[in-house]
Description:
Elements: H1 7-10, E1 19-22, E2 29-30, H2 31-46, E3 55-58, H3 64-76, E4 78-81, H4 88-98, E5 102-105, H5 113-120, E6 123-126, E7 155-160, E8 170-174, H6 175-188, E9 196-199, H7 206-219, E10 222-225, H8 231-241, E11 245-248, H9 250-260, H10 264-269, E12 274-277, H11 284-294, E13 298-304, E14 309-313, E15 328-329, E16 333-337, E17 350-355, H12 367-373, E18 374-375, E19 378-387, E20 393-398, E21 403-405, E22 408-410, H13 412-419, E23 425-435, E24 439-448, H14 456-464, E25 475-478, H15 495-498
Parallel strand pairs: 1-10, 3-4, 3-5, 5-6, 9-10, 11-12, 12-13, 24-25
Antiparallel strand pairs: 1-2, 7-8, 13-14, 14-15, 16-17, 17-19, 18-19, 19-20, 21-22, 23-24
Helix pairs in contact: 2-3, 4-5, 6-7, 8-9, 9-11
Amino acid sequence: MxxxxxVLSLLRGAADDAIALTAxxxxxxTYRALxxxxxxxxxxxxxxxxxxxxxxxxxxxxxxxxxxxxxxxASGLSAAPLNPAYKQAxxxxxxxxxxxxxxxxxxxxxxxxxxxxxxLGIAVAExxxxxxxxxxxxxxxxxxxxxxxxxxxxxxxxxxxxxTTSRPKVVPLSxxxxxxxxxxxxxxxxxxxxxxxLNIMPLFHIHGLMAVVLASVTAGASICCSxxxxxxxxxxxxxxxxxxxxxxxxxxxxxxxxxxERNPEAVTQMRLRFVRSSSASLPPAVFKALEETFHCxxxxxxxxTEAAHQMASNPLPPGEQRPGFVxxxxxxxxxxxxxxxxxVPVGQEGEVCIRGANVTIGYESNPAANAASFTNGWFRTGDxxxxxxxxxxxxxxxxxxxxxxxxxxxxxxxxxxxxLEHPSVRQAVxxxxxxxxxxxxxxxxxxxxxxxxxxxAELQGFxxxxxxxxxxxRKIVFLDEVPKGATGKVQRIGLAKLLDLGEL
Length: 504
């Protein structure tokens, strides 16, 4: 079978001796060794009757084996990566939804996924890593058999939506979806074999899987697979690995900036070609701080699971990077529509919609969600925004996160950006809290810069200089840290309940 528009075809381009994966304290893995490894895993799985289109759940900690397992499974079967921090009940939910043929775990792992899989009658296999093995190389069992590679329409990756407001939905992504998206990202970032990315993103999430791992593989570039995000170790890893770029969510960037203030020498030694941000809106104040700290372009992009990640991105120089904008269409087409499904003029706000080769054909076994999410071939993202005259997209909020204050609509992102302009504010998250007469009122959770003193009244006064009175947070809560989800994103919905704020 000709390997066209599949993940396996992405592995064919790199030179045999080019480095594919590295990890702190490990021998580097070349592309020739990676290709050999991938073929062995395919044949080992085939020996147990597991082949193209079959799902294999991966429950491994961040690191080179997690990255290589994803590449191997997604290129020959369907990868179903799961958060290794889940509890048994969560695993039972996800595994019963996904129905994988196999679950991969670390050797000797006591992860509760074992008990969940046993209850559901799903086989579990431990990966075997030999001492001094190159980064990412493991085996499952000695037996091998012939296998047939997947075609473009076969499933390559399956993930759940975050499910902040409803039951998580199953998102199947095809070989062709991943092929298109990886090429879109590699092209946008102009990745070459000389690029080396320091991965700090969790590899059970679309951002790290696609923007870091598969985009790098597409370009024949290399990835340092860290054990996960750790702001205290970031600059040590960077000094050792000498990355040309990294990608992260805004909360991670903020933590790195905080450490940068204490590590000026390490910062000056870094030679980053660019810094990338995605998965949540990057406040302009953080954009500016990253640019000033690392002296390189800051590339904010816009992605989601249903699009196999990237939908829009700011361009590299000589293109313009616009703070507060997620860039121009970078793969799929983008349209802004009104409530009736009609396109709106440039500059007018509406729902962001996409269509293209990287977009899922629909949620699994969920006709109601598909009917609500697809209009005339366009996928409705649920995000509110507008396109400017130059085609740059501004996200003004998640439609379900917009605060309805007695009929007056408030974008949390707009309020965040204003609060973050105050020199004493390190992090700000605006959200809705219940109000007995207005329905919802504007509230904000704020983390101050170390050693700063600021009262709620002072911050409200500062905000009032830039915001209409109804947008100024009525309630401000000062925290040491804002609660975040497993991927580092802040969940605005439900934050009032989580912080036990009651009703105004």
